[in-house]
Amino acid sequence: QIYNFLSNWPLGFETLTYHVDRAKLDQNLFEIAQKMGVMFVWERVSTVEREQDRVTACQTTSGQRITASWFIDASGRAKLFSKTFSIEKSEYGRQK
Predict the structure, then answer these.
(1) Would you tell me how many other CB atoms lie within 10 Å of the CB of residue 71?
(2) pTM summary value
(3) Is a pLDDT exceeding 70 seen at residue 70?
(4) Burial class, 45, CB count within 10 angstroms (exposed 0-12 / middle 13-18 / buried 19+)
(5) What is the pLDDT of residues 38-69, one digit of tens each?
(6) Residues with Cβ < 8 Å from 59, sequence gap 6 or more?
(7) In the Cβ-directed half-sphere of 56, how many Cα atoms lie within 13 Å?
(8) Which of 48, 52, 38, 42 is nearest to 82 (CA)?
(9) Adjacency order of strands within the sheet including 54-60
(10) Which of 52, 78, 82, 91 is a good FRET partner for 6, with 20 to 30 A between their CA atoms?
């Protein structure tokens, strides 16, 4: 069987997978997060404020200033947190 081959040495891949309706999964996760008090802001961040090694606030393009205990950087290629903290990009792996 191909699955045994993939899961055994030297490859050692996990062969157990889950197939779900992605839209429904996303909706359920969103609702769970909302019930737990997570605030979603559907705006672009223009500025990241920091104190030493900690993000203290984000300012949106509309001028809204958001403070929180936790932030998730979903800025993609804009790399807002990386730029704010001068984190260099680290390339690894084979070139395509």
Answers:
(1) 17
(2) 0.59
(3) yes
(4) buried
(5) 888 889 999 999 999 999 999 999 999 999 98
(6) 45, 46, 47, 48, 49, 65, 66
(7) 5
(8) 48
(9) 45-51, 54-60, 65-66
(10) 91
